[in-house]
Specification:
Helix content: 40-55%
Bound molecules: S-adenosylmethionine
Radius of gyration: 23 Å
Largest sheet: 7 strands, mixed
Number of helices: 18
Strand content: 15-25%
Structural class: alpha/beta
């Protein structure tokens, strides 16, 4: 495999990095070329590269902040590729792994039509809602206040106080509500305490009782957000886990605050020119029939990485509480629709690996992982699958890249944000380089690979690169 260059297209693609630069008491996100960086003293250079260029700027929060997860990339990254690809309102952008909809929201703000696909129903709801700026803000708040009133009355009847301090003095007259038995084991243990869970279930009942199609999605998304960040015991670092357990937390009032924040954003968003944006609940490896041939001018996206993370855990709490995942069978169906990027999501009959059967470097990496496993005497079922998941991951990406070719207009530009990984017995997987190589074999032209940021692998001290693979689709060769 030849090493792909840092992207340089007609001078516009000098390799640039997102950096955070301290300016007085403030810091700003800035794009620097390698030449700019060389001018900084070494400590400032290191700090600039590794400071979190992933942070969202304050001025970007409208709609983006309605719900995000740790996997989201920042809106300014989308703006950068929109500008480098020279996109405007006459173009159409696709995000095939749209997650919480960062690409779609940013394109809509910029007046560029966009479409997405997302296989996780919770993330799909987030994307769909964040590009829906139609609800009347006053109507939304009035409706939410009515729902909150019903929920608070019910809590009073249950002798459960919304205010956690008061709740300690309360004596509950009724047993607390719980999830159905088949749902409980789906949650990370202790991810939500019994009292906040009771309040959440009461609020969900009130939402159901007052269901209004105009506001339902925005109200649910606000609940998903407060569940994760205010109500639950979850912590992200970046893996999702359970942190210190809070016995109680306000739910209804937090939710109302989140709904009001959405309503506050709406007037400014509604004043922007109307631009179409939508997301399909679909698999990025099978989307050919969703869109017209040669209708896509650009792709800006971030697929999963081969890193042993179970992506369904990140959204598990809100997926279960909002009813997207109610049983083990639902969870399995969800995982089957995802790109294979961890051993917990591999099934009999998976065959995406056939797409890279001839790719000697990927086969070599899989063989190195298996050799290391045997040398280390690792025998668990998961460890035995490390080599296989690596092949399935790149095979799935090959399948996706092949699938979208008929949808792309000749000369379409594509940006894929991916990260190097060493999760499988510390064998280095240069994801960006391999993806670029797969794309080239499928007829894409590699424009370059930009460094987004680096991350230190704590176990090995290696620098892992998070990169943007930039491609061009020249059109079908006759
Ligand atoms: C890294 S995240 C994308 C984050 C997104 N850029 C954002 O800002 O929120 C990758 C997403 O791909 C989704 N995904 C995984 N496999 C998929 C597939 N086969 N088809 C569609 N989406 C998939 C995951 O559910 C996840 O939401």
């Amino acid at each position: 495999m030849r090493k792909a260059p840092a992207s340089t297209e007609a001078g516009a693609f000098a390799c640039r990095l997102w950096c955070i630069l301290p300016i007085g008491d403030y810091s700003v996100n800035a794009q620097l070329t390698l030449d700019d960086l060389a001018l900084l003293p070494p400590p400032a250079r290191r700090a600039a590269i590794n400071a979190d260029g992933n942070k969202m700027l304050l001025q970007d929060k409208a709609a983006h902040d309605w719900y995000r997860f740790v996997l989201s990339y920042p809106p300014h990254l989308v703006r950068d590729y929109v500008s480098r690809f020279g996109l405007n309102g006459s173009h159409q952008v696709l995000d095939p792994f749209s997650g919480t909809g960062t690409t779609l929201v940013e394109c809509k703000k910029l007046g560029i039509p966009s479409i997405g696909t997302e296989a996780n129903p919770m993330a799909h709801l987030a994307g769909l809602t964040k590009v829906d700026w139609c609800p009347d803000p006053c109507g939304l708040v009035t409706h939410a206040e009515r729902v909150a009133g019903t929920a608070l009355t019910q809590l009073q009847a249950d002798r459960v106080s919304e205010n956690p301090v008061l709740c300690l003095e309360d004596k509950q007259a009724y047993p607390l509500r719980r999830l159905p038995p088949e749902c409980e084991p789906l949650l990370l243990s202790n991810s939500i305490s019994p009292l906040p869970l009771h309040k959440t279930l009461v609020l969900l009942d009130a939402l159901h009782q007052h269901h209004d199609e105009r506001y339902a999605r925005h109200e649910l998304l606000a609940l998903a957000k407060v569940l994760v960040f205010r109500v639950s015991n979850l912590k992200f670092g970046p893996e999702v886990g359970v942190g210190s357990v809070k016995v109680d937390a306000p739910v209804i009032t937090e939710w109302l605050t989140a709904v009001r924040a959405i309503a506050d954003d709406l007037p400014a968003l509604q004043s922007l020119p109307q631009t179409p944006a939508t997301v399909h609940h679909a698999d990025a490896r099978q989307l050919r029939y969703l869109f017209d041939p040669q209708s896509i001018d650009a792709v800006i996206t971030s697929p999963p990485y081969p890193n042993e993370k179970d992506y369904t855990r990140t959204t598990r709490l809100e997926s279960v509480l909002l009813g997207f995942v109610r049983s083990k069978a639902d969870l399995q169906a969800l995982k089957r629709g995802l790109l294979r990027s961890n051993t917990r999501g591999i099934y009999k009959g998976d065959d995406d690996d056939t797409w890279v059967a001839e790719h000697s470097e990927i086969q070599g990496i899989a063989a190195a992982i298996e050799k290391r496993r045997i040398e280390l005497g690792k025998t668990s079922g998961f460890e035995r699958l490390y080599a296989r998941v690596t092949k399935l991951y790149f095979g799935g990406m090959a399948r996706h890249l092949a699938e979208i070719r008929p949808l792309l207009r000749p000369n379409a530009r594509l940006a894929y944000v991916v990260g190097d990984q060493m999760s499988y017995l510390r064998v280095m997987i240069r994801t960006g380089q391999l993806l670029a190589d797969i794309a080239e074999r499928l007829g894409y032209e590699i424009i370059g690979i930009d460094l987004f940021r680096t991350r230190l692998a704590t176990a090995t001290g290696e620098q892992l690169r998070e990169e943007v693979v930039v491609l061009r689709w020249p059109g079908e060769r006759l």
